[in-house]
Amino acid sequence: MENIKGKVVVITGASSGLGAAAARQLVQQGAKVALGARRLERLQALVKELGADNASAFRVDVTEQAQVDAFVAHAVARFGRIDVMLNNAGIMPLSPLEMLRCEEWGRCIDVNIKGVLWGIAAALPHFKQQQGGQFINVSSVAGHKVLEGGAIYSATKYAVRVISESLRQEVKAYNIRTTVISPGAVATELPASVTAPGVKEAVADLYRSTAIPADSFGRCVLFAISQPADVDVNEILYRPTQQML
Predict the structure, then answer these.
(1) Residue 68: what pLDDT?
(2) Model pTM?
(3) Backbone CA torsion sign across 70, 74, 75, 80
């Protein structure tokens, strides 16, 4: 894993699942990580595991732009710079539209779209100033396929891909790289955000029978970051071998 040692990676949604798995693997390869999420006690436990020299915790709600700005500023103050912004925080409140779970729709849009936008807005000035950096934005297989009950979630994950592609084109002059990672069923707490009757049970069954470990995501992050500066890995789409959807 070349080109990872010494890099500073800012991770949202780092208290569990994909974000925590990526943090562990990054630190193993010599990176420094700034960990952000709402559950500060989880972050502090992860910092204790990884070592205070390698990791820092910051409570952040990605739906609040000022908090995301403060998180990135904290990372710069703590480690002197940032090299990668991993916009990982997300929720998956699947349900048929006819259920009219409007509050869930709004929360999904706020976390999955605005959370990514606020991460971009916070990190981009630093990347421009240092003439380099990398965004890694997390989409989903649902950002490539639309299934019944997934209208809002898929819309948000398609949006992440659209935003990332436009960003990719806009930041070439600053030597900034842009990667989208789209996982399938990975064993995390994400299915817990599905609460609609009937849908919740079906998703739980799918994940029990199919999901692969979160380390799979961490390996994708390492691959994207480790490439030479002149290689920009723009998209990684992966699933469990057994996943049909």
Answers:
(1) 98
(2) 0.95
(3) positive
Q: Is 225 exposed, middle or buried (0-12, 13-18, 19+ CB in 10 A)?
A: buried
pLDDT digits (tens, 9 = 90+) for 148-189: 899 999 999 999 999 999 999 999 999 999 999 999 999 988
- Name the DSSP letter for residue 113: I
Rounded to whole angstroms, the Cα distance separating 233 from 72 reads 23
CA angle 151, 199, 103 (to 5 degrees): 55
Inter-residue long-range contacts of 227-231, CB under 8 Å, 24+ positions, other chains counted: 227/3, 228/2, 228/3, 229/3, 229/132, 229/175
Contacts of 212 (CB under 8 A, 6+ apart): 185, 186, 187, 240
Cα atoms in the Cβ-side hemisphere of radius 13 Å centred on 201? 2
Domains delineated in the chain: 8-236 (3.40.50.720)
Tokens describing residue 10: 């800012």
174 counts as catalytic: no
**Burial status of residue 21 (CB atoms within 10 A of its CB: 0-12, 13-18, 19 or more):** buried
124's tokens: 């981009």
Catalytic residue among 153, 158, 207, 238: 153
SS3 153: helix
Q: Is the dihedral of CA 220, 114, 63, 74 positive or negative?
A: positive
